[in-house]
Amino acid sequence: MVINFSILSEHLDRYLAGLGGTLAASLISLVASFILGAIIAVFRITPFKPLQWISAIYVEFFRNIPLMLIAFFTLIALPLLTGAVLVPFAAGLTALTVYTSAFIAEVIRAGIQAIPKGQMEAARSSGLTYVQAMWHVILPQAVKVVIPPLGNQFLNLVKNSSILTVLSASDLMYQADLINSDTFDTFSTYMFAGLFYLLLTVPLSFGIRYLEHKYQPVKGVRA
């Protein structure tokens, strides 16, 4: 197949607009899902049983439901149940956040459980509350331990942001759909869209590898 580079030059503004929408959605959802996932992870291992049950149900529920179904529920069913109407972009962000946070919660929980229990005991004995010890001592160490799987979830989030297209929110795939409807050159249109996705995911991938190398334990030395 011949690549039609005129599509890129003639519709560059659309691609850039879509890239901006995807970047904004990814950054907002990344921060929100990390914060929510960390909270859920702490709930999973807290001594308070009701919080354990609630967080376990949350994780199992959202990890086992397709993202598209969550997005449609957020856009259509949520207003019917609560009266809160969300614009497509906000509905997509909400769906991305709750879906990704369930996976991040399990990653962070594994990191927390990898930290020796003596760390928490030492923090509590120094006068810190459980929340303070978790926030200042345990979580920073846990995040460093799980940088590789955490980074994979962030990469998945960027790619999953294409769910905004289904909700008619302006992202990269939505703009690609509009371009394709005008040019009827499906191959070239979506190939360029894929290249723009690479502009987001490749730097993120290298950044994750840098952090992994920076914070990995030195061989022969026990952390």
UniProtKB/TrEMBL annotation:
- Pfam family of the protein (one): BPD_transp_1
Supply the InterPro entries for this chain: AA_ABC_transptr_permease_3TM, ArtM/GltK/GlnP/TcyL/YhdX-like, MetI-like, MetI-like_sf
Q: Which domain of life is it from?
A: Bacteria
Q: Which SUPFAM superfamilies match?
A: MetI-like
Where can this protein be found?
Cell membrane
User: What membrane topology term does the record carry?
Assistant: Multi-pass membrane protein
Keywords of the record: Cell membrane, Membrane, Transmembrane, Transmembrane helix, Transport
- Record keywords: Transport included? yes
- Residue ranges occupied by any ABC transmembrane type-1 domain in the UniProt entry: 19-208
Q: What NCBIfam families does this protein map onto?
A: HEQRo_perm_3TM
Q: Which family does it belong to?
A: Belongs to the binding-protein-dependent transport system permease family.
Name of the protein described by the UniProt record? Amino acid ABC transporter permease
Q: Which organism is it from?
A: Paenibacillus alvei (Bacillus alvei)
Print the organism lineage: Bacteria, Bacillati, Bacillota, Bacilli, Bacillales
